[in-house]
């Protein structure tokens, strides 16, 4: 996709998402807002200038100006055009191209990793979690959200509402290759981390977790 065309696409998507987040009438916006609030609440407990990696950052929907100012935030995504757009749009050179199987940071160098609505897109989530564990400092944490495939409400949204009443197309299996149920994600995190917080958001639609490196 040419640069001008890709910039127009990303800008339109960002503007639509932000408009929904700030609208009291958009259910999707309310949901985005609740996901963001969870991430921000956890990040705000970190000391100033902590090193944070936002893995699979996309268009940085949850990141505020205050976060950019107060923390050493590195935002990483595997889509080069998205990263280039964010560098220009946010005037922030700390965006990097990379993936969660091979994080370009040294061992024990990161204070926190945020993965907001990312792990469901990863074909080998355990491999990615082990790589995140490698770069985390001892006792530090990952903060994540992901759809909860134990939720009957999520099933209705994805397979009925999105299919017939929304402009959001139902997800193909290759878009969400890792569809975690409540107990599955919990068991995987406990295998490699100490689980600090675990639960759901918005009537069980999403899973939320904070897990520390052992």
TrEMBL record:
Cross-referenced InterPro entries: Methyltransf_11, SAM-dependent_MTases_sf
Gene Ontology terms, MF aspect: S-adenosylmethionine-dependent methyltransferase activity
Gene3D superfamilies (UniProt xref): Vaccinia Virus protein VP39
Any single Pfam family the record assigns to this protein: Methyltransf_11
SUPFAM superfamilies xrefs: S-adenosyl-L-methionine-dependent methyltransferases
Annotated Methyltransferase type domain residues: 53-143
Protein name: Methyltransferase type 11 domain-containing protein
Organism: Candidatus Uhrbacteria bacterium RIFCSPLOWO2_01_FULL_47_24
Classification lineage: Bacteria, Candidatus Uhriibacteriota
């Amino acid at each position: 996709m040419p640069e001008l065309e890709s910039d127009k696409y990303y800008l339109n998507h960002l503007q639509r998402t932000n408009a929904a987040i700030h609208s009291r009438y958009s259910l999707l916006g309310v949901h985005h807002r609740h996901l963001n609030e969870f991430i921000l609440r956890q990040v705000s407990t970190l000391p100033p200038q902590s090193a944070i990696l936002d893995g699979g950052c996309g268009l940085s929907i949850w990141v505020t100006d205050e976060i950019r100012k107060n923390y050493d935030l590195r935002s990483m995504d595997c889509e080069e055009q998205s990263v280039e757009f964010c560098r220009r749009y946010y005037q922030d050179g700390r965006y990097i191209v990379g993936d969660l199987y091979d994080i370009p940071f040294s061992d024990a160098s990161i204070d926190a990793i945020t993965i907001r609505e990312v792990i469901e897109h990863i074909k080998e989530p355990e491999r990615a979690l082990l790589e995140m564990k490698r770069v985390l400092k001892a006792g530090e944490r990952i903060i994540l959200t992901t759809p909860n495939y134990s939720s009957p409400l999520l099933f209705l949204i994805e397979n009925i509402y999105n299919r017939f009443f929304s402009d959001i197309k139902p997800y193909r299996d290759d878009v969400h290759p890792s569809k975690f149920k409540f107990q599955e994600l919990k068991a995987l995190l406990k295998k490699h981390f100490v689980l600090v917080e675990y639960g759901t958001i918005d009537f069980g639609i999403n899973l939320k977790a904070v897990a520390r490196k052992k």
